[in-house]
Amino acid sequence: MSFDREKLISLAKSVRNNAHAPYSGFLVGVALQDDSGDFYIGCNVENSSFPEGNCAEASAIGAMVAAGGRKIVALVAVGGRTELESCAPCGGCRQRILEFADQHTRVLYVNDAGEFEDVSIGDLLPASFRLTDV
Ligand code: THU
Question: Does pLDDT of 56 surpass 80?
Answer without folding.
Answer: yes
